[in-house]
Amino acid sequence: MKSLIQFLVTVAVLGVVGVLGISFLMERGSTKYIFTNLENVELKDTAVVTGTMGYVDRTEEAEQYRKERLKAAARAFQAGKVTRVRIMGDSVSAAKDGEPEGMKQSLIGRGVPVEAIETETGVRSAYEAVKTLEGTSDGVLFVSQTFHAKRLVYMARELEVDAVGYGVSVKERSVMEQIREQGARARNARGLYWYKWIEKPNYFQYSQE
Predict the structure, then answer these.
(1) What angle, rounded to 10 degrees, do the helices at 146-158 and 2-30 form?
(2) How far apart (Å, rounded) are the C-alpha atoms in residues 49 and 66?
């Protein structure tokens, strides 16, 4: 019994160390590509705004985050930092029905012309959003809360996408919210590196046979 407890404790400690290590890598690998002042944002082709896929059970928080992202994206477009805005969201699940269309209408209401708006539906995680951009030659500006933009930018640059982030303001986050972000970074990194190191190489190997 004692050996089992020691084993479980060891696994738990290693898990925590692994999660913190991944979070540190994302932080270190993305910070220099994040801008919080619009004047300093690099010129890019497309602003990418993701929906609040991970906040189904926190409606008020999700709405706040979504509004902040859309307001910031409209500001970036109007300042000439990007030439179009690409919206990514979940229009599949009942809880998120019509999210991309609602975001599109919000941008139009903020002065972004309809012809400058693109929508990508069925995107339900930050990792999925980044993966859809792989292979693009466009420069990408992720517009999101700073902590979220760092995750997006890190993953995109790992897939060789020319990406930076415009980090918008956010209220001081609770300890629980910070813990959630650590878990989200770990989950996204797992998907990213599984695809990059295992799924993608195997695809190319079999497609060439």
Answers:
(1) 90
(2) 9
CATH code for the structural domain at 2-207: 3.40.50
**Locus of tokens 């500001």:** 75
Model pLDDT for residues 88-104, shown as the tens digit of each residue: 987 655 444 568 888 99
Q: Give me the helices (H) in 45-96, please.
A: 59-78
| Sequence ranges of the domains in the chain | 2-207
* Tokens encoding 113: 């012309």
Assign 54 a pLDDT band (cuts: 50, 70, 90): low
HEC assignment per residue over 103-140: HHHHHHHCCCCHHHEEEECCCCCHHHHHHCCCCCCCCE
Q: What does each C-alpha distance from 120 to 41, 56, 128, 165 come to in angstroms?
A: 24, 19, 11, 19
Tokens of 85: 């805005």
pLDDT in tens, 163-206: 999 999 766 667 777 778 888 888 888 888 888 766 765 533 33
* Order of all β-strands in the sheet with 117-120: 34-35, 163-168, 140-145, 46-50, 84-88, 117-120
